[in-house]
UniProtKB/TrEMBL annotation:
Protein name in UniProt: Tfp pilus assembly protein PilF
Gene3D superfamilies linked to this entry: Tetratricopeptide repeat domain (1.25.40.10)
Top-level taxon of the source organism: Bacteria
Ranges for the TPR repeats: 234-267, 302-335
UniProt keyword terms in alphabetical order: TPR repeat
PROSITE patterns for this protein: TPR
Keyword check for Ribosomal protein: no
Species whose genome carries this gene: Arenibacter nanhaiticus
UniProt xrefs under SMART domains: TPR
Amino acid sequence: MALEPNERPGPPITKFESMLKTDDIYFFDAEDFEDIIHHYLNNGKIALAKKAIKISLEQHPDSIELKLLFVEVLVFENNLDLAEQLLDELQSIDSSNEEIYIQRANIFSKKDNHEAAVMLLHEALNLTDDSFDIHSLLGMEYLFMDNFEDAKLNFMKCVSHDEHDYQSLYNVIYCFEFLEEHDGAILYLNDYLERNPYSEVAWHQLGKMYFEKKLYKEALAAFDFAVISDDTFIGAYFEKGKVLEKLGRYNEAIENYEITIEMEDPTSHAYLRIGRCHEKLQNEELAKSFYYRTVHEDPLLDKGWLAITDYYIRQKDFTKALYYINKAINLDGENAKYWKKCARIHATLKNNDEAYYAYQQAVDLGYFEFDIWFHWANVAIQNFDVPSAIEILLQGIVFYPDRSEMQYKLAGFYLLISDFEKAQHQLINALKIDIGQLHLFKKEFPQFYHTDWAKNLIQDIKKASR
């Protein structure tokens, strides 16, 4: 039963939901249905949006706007073929409706054809004066294409239209960051703050830009203004704490991290940073306490387990350190630095096979820093496996061909297996690169350094270099 106009139960959404609870049928204007559907879509209530679309099209079967909302839901649910069929019908009726081009662009975007989506959005721009939503969509498409310059320009247009569009502001700064244009971001934010001096979001972003450039005093001032603008802005307190750490003001940093804990439920990251501050202050027991709180709050935070590992390494309790580094590796087994640390702990405990394996994992994961080749080779030597030690250093020399330290060590390893020809070649290379490092060879291989063979070779190289 349809109600009389004076019996309508209130605003459109309340009225619509009242209708759903009864068998009554209420009539709505097409514009009211649009508001109802937009409300449900904006709040993620897709089922209610679809129900409203169904009823709206029964009451207004010729409404292009309502059919376009139906298309929007079809695209959201990846029912792209049906969406395109409906768009074809609508375009034959109203070819100048920009929303048709926007929805076609959304379909192409879903299909990862972002170039076509951009072309359609530019066509939509030519059909409307209300273009800022389209610029936002263009910005996202350019981000998908890794075209950060054009993405930045489109998001800037959104911000110029609505300076409280913080999502677009964040996207602008994201583009500056990716392009490594920190100076450009600082200029942009300072200009924005001239017009919006109490924008805590802009102050926060400006502080982060200064932090990236290691301008810590400027960063601290920016975060202070963010807090002045909004004294409940947790992110500003946290970032301010990080700056204070860089300035060596650890007690003040702790105070700011504690504020974030007081304002909302404690976070593992806050506990971790407080622990690091206490570590810097040499409050070892307090540091340990906060590291344990970190992993209690979030057992999946590998950095918490790593912090506990480092604590026990400092205490020279390598058995416990090994237990906790394995916790970190179980959470992030692709982290080469964790494997390297694990290897060093095993080597200290004389677990040479495990240390060898851990070093190999670190290298396989891309850790090629200079020191790892030495430590790994030394583990092989501890296992009396000279050929493996030689092979390891040969790999290392590929990355560091001009470092004499490796050449001297490799010469000594060849001498261990009596391969005098290769030892001579390697020792000559080492002497030519840096004869001043000869003391390394003397210290590690005194049994060879004092032989006539080595003395004569060294003497010949010294004469040749004069």
